User: Which sequence fits this backbone?
C-alpha cells in the first residue's frame, strides 16, 4: 500500500476513534446529567416528604391542642339570700366559702348571685351592715367568692380591707390550678401589672407570684389583672421571665385547664338569663328542686353554655314570685330541665350549699357524656 493511502486510512481511523471518543464522552455526560437529574428529583421528593411530615406534625399538634381545650362552660346561679340563714358573721363567711369550694371542685366557670328579694344590687361596692340586715347578702356573697377565686399573691392588690372579708382568713383555700405556688412550673399564671417604667418598645412588668417578675409583650396599665402565658424557653441568667398576655379563657379553651370562675350579680332571676355574658346565651338551663323530675331519667343534650340554677330557703318559687319580669308562678317552665337530683332524700330539706354538691356530682357524668358526643370523641 502506498504511503499516502496508509496515511489516509490512519487519519480516517483516528477520526473514527475521535468520533467514538466524542460519542462516548457525550454518552458519559448524558448519563451524568441523568444521574444529577435523578439526584435532584430525589432531593426534591425528600424535601416534599419532609414538608408534608412537618405539615402533618403541625396539624397533629394543632389537633392535639384543640383536643386538649375545653370549649363548653358551666355556670351556676344561686340567691345571695342564703347567707341570711347563717347564725353568725363567721358562719356566714364559711357558707360563702363552701359555695366557692363546691363550684371549684366541679370546675364551674361562672357563678351568678341573684337577688330573690328585690334588693337590686348590681356591684360589690356596697357595705355589709350586719347579719340579718336586708340588702347586703348578694354583695357579700359575691365579694367572698371573688376573694377566694383570686390567687393569694394577688389579693393585696385587688382586695383592700373590707368588713365583708373580716373572717375570710377562716376560709379553706380553693387550691385550684390557677393558684400556682411560687416555685411551681405552670404554662399560665395570673398576674398584676406593676407600676414600673419600661423602655420604649418593651412590654410591662407583671407580678405573677414568682421570684422574678414577668416582662410581657404589651404595655398595659398598672394594676390590671392579666393572664400570662410564660415562654417555654427562659434565660436563667435574666433578671425577668418572659411571657405573653392571653385572654382569660385561654387556659381553658387551648389547654383544657380549669382556670377559676367569674362572679356576676343579677338583680332578679330573669336577669340571670337576660344578662348572660355569652353572646349565644345559655343553650342548656337546668332548674333544681325536690319537685323536679327524677335525675336518673334525664338525659343532657349537647350544649356550649350550661346554666344550673338553685333556689334559697323557699326554693326557686321565691325568685319567680318577686321577679318583676316574670308572669309565671311555676319555676319549671323557665328551664330546659327541672330536676330532683337527690330522689328519696332522707332529710326534709336539702340546703342550697348541699344541693350544689349533690347536683353537680350527679350531673357531671351526664355533662361529660353530652360534651363527648358533641365533639365526636
Ligand atoms: C332549702 S332548698 C328549698 C326547699 C324548698 N322547700 C323547695 O320547695 O324547693 C334550697 C334549694 O336546694 C335545691 N334542692 C333542694 N332539694 C333538692 C333536690 N332534692 N333536688 C334538687 N335540688 C334540690 C333547690 O335548688 C332548692 O331551691
Assistant:
Amino acid at each position: 500500500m502506498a504511503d499516502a493511502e496508509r496515511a489516509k486510512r490512519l487519519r480516517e481511523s483516528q477520526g473514527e476513534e475521535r468520533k467514538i471518543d466524542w460519542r462516548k464522552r457525550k454518552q458519559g455526560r448524558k448519563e451524568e446529567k441523568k444521574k444529577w437529574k435523578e439526584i435532584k428529583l430525589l432531593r426534591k421528593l425528600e424535601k416534599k416528604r419532609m414538608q408534608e411530615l412537618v405539615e402533618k406534625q403541625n396539624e397533629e399538634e394543632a389537633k392535639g391542642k384543640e383536643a386538649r381545650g375545653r370549649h363548653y362552660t358551666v355556670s351556676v346561679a344561686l340567691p345571695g339570700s342564703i347567707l341570711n340563714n347563717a347564725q353568725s358573721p363567721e358562719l356566714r363567711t364559711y357558707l360563702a366559702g363552701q359555695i366557692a369550694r363546691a363550684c371549684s371542685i366541679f370546675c364551674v366557670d361562672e357563678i351568678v348571685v341573684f337577688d330573690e328579694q328585690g334588693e337590686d344590687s348590681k356591684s360589690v361596692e356596697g357595705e355589709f351592715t350586719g347579719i340579718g340586715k336586708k340588702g347586703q347578702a348578694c354583695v357579700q356573697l359575691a365579694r367572698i367568692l371573688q376573694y377566694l377565686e383570686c390567687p393569694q399573691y394577688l389579693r393585696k392588690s385587688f382586695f383592700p380591707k373590707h368588713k365583708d372579708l373580716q373572717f375570710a382568713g377562716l376560709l379553706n383555700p380553693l387550691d385550684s390550678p390557677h393558684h400556682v405556688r411560687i416555685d411551681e412550673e405552670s404554662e399560665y399564671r395570673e398576674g398584676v401589672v406593676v407600676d414600673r417604667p419600661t423602655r420604649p418598645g418593651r412590654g410591662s412588668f407583671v407580678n405573677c407570684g414568682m421570684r422574678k417578675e414577668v416582662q410581657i409583650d404589651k404595655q398595659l396599665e398598672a394594676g390590671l389583672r392579666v393572664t400570662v402565658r410564660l415562654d417555654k424557653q427562659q434565660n436563667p441568667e435574666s433578671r425577668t421571665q418572659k411571657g405573653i398576655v392571653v385572654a382569660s379563657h385561654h387556659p381553658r379553651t387551648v389547654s383544657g385547664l380549669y382556670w377559676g370562675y367569674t362572679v356576676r350579680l343579677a338583680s332578679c332571676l330573669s336577669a340571670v338569663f337576660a344578662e348572660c355574658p355569652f353572646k349565644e346565651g345559655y343553650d342548656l338551663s337546668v332548674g333544681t328542686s325536690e319537685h323536679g323530675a327524677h335525675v336518673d331519667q334525664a338525659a343532657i343534650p349537647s350544649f356550649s353554655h350550661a346554666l344550673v340554677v338553685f333556689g334559697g330557703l323557699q326554693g326557686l318559687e321565691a325568685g319567680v314570685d318577686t321577679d318583676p319580669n316574670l308572669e309565671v308562678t311555676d319555676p319549671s317552665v323557665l328551664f330546659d330541665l327541672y330536676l330532683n337530683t337527690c330522689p328519696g332524700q332522707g332529710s326534709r330539706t336539702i340546703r342550697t350549699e348541699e344541693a350544689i354538691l349533690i347536683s353537680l356530682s350527679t350531673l357531671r357524668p351526664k355533662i361529660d357524656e353530652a360534651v363527648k358526643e358533641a365533639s365526636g370523641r
Q: What stands out?
A: The CA atoms of residues 11 and 17 lie 10 Å apart. Residues 288-290, 292, 310-311, 313, 315-316, 340-342, 345, 349-352, 355, 359 surround S-adenosylmethionine (CB under 6 Å). The chain has a mean pLDDT of 90.
